[in-house]
Amino acid sequence: MEFKWQVKTAGLSAKRFLARQGVSHRMFTQINHSNGKILVNGKVVAPATKLAVNAELTLIMPAEPADPNVPVSHEPLTVIFEDENFLVVAKPAGLTVVPGPSNRTDTLVNRVKGHLVDSQETNLVPHVITRLDWDTSGLVLLAKHRLANSWMNQALADHTLVKRYLALVGGQLPDDHGIIDAPLRRADEGFNQIVAEDGKPAKTEYWVRQRFSGYTLVEVLLHTGRTHQIRAHFQSIGHPLLGDALYGGDQQEMTRQALHAFQLGYDDPMTHVHQQFALPLPEDMQRLIK
User: What single DSSP character describes residue 246?
Assistant: First the structure.
């Protein structure tokens, strides 16, 4: 793949300039070992070459071949958006995102790989940016190559990649808006997360969308990205998600945790255009709010 930039500042080396574009030292090593190239005004140059203002720098990245240990799946995949760098897909509840011991052949990553193969892409390693739990539905962002993965990991660190969720929590929340600011760590026994003083900082903000007789629809924004953060935080204030067996949620109305990643937004690192996507609630959650 080729990526082009116009240099705005004089005196930077090509390597330093590219580092500012998200090309890590590790990525430079991969480029050097697999016939990648740096060009300035169409001529191949060394990474230490100093750049002049208005020079055109081109980075040629080697393709990422398929991992033979990740099988291709041709099961259905709902693509919301796709360009040369990113892929936004709709994940249904009950589908694992990445291969693991319990499922190595038909996860979201296997399906995306099948999509890339069918599209005759040269980069065949999907990089998951926004992972969701097995039983959570909603939007998932994937990078189609190493550089796009680096861009979005930086966006996550800078909080410029924004994800919003809709959840149905047990009972009626008294306040229309709230922030749960409580550290989380894994429980001493089991797979659940608990609020604990020795945990990692975790902050969840929410807005009440609608109240029902036995539960509340809330919009949720994560300010940190801890494992099971939404699920553990709402349990900690006495309002576990409906259907969430691990965190004590009522399972009479839902058979999985009532959590849906409904909105995703980021600034495109090449065009600087803001991209925004939304996905309606799935049928099982819609049924309850109707």
Answer: G
Give me the domains of the chain, ranges plus CATH numbers.
2-60 (3.10.290), 63-158 (3.30.2350.10), 164-261 (3.30.2350.10)
DSSP H or E segment with residue 56: strand 56-60
Predicted pLDDT of residue 262: 98
Global pTM? Answer: 0.92
| Contact call for residues 66 and 255 (beta carbons, < 8 A) | no
The half-sphere exposure of 69 on its side-chain side, counting CA atoms within 13 A, is: 4
Q: Is 133 a catalytic residue?
A: yes
Dihedral, CA of residue 122, residue 98, residue 151 and residue 193, to nearest 10:
180
Q: What is the pLDDT of residues 40-67, one digit of tens each?
A: 999 999 989 999 999 999 999 888 889 9
Q: Which of 133, 135, 244, 250 is catalytic?
A: 133
61 and 146 in contact (C-beta within 8 Å)? yes
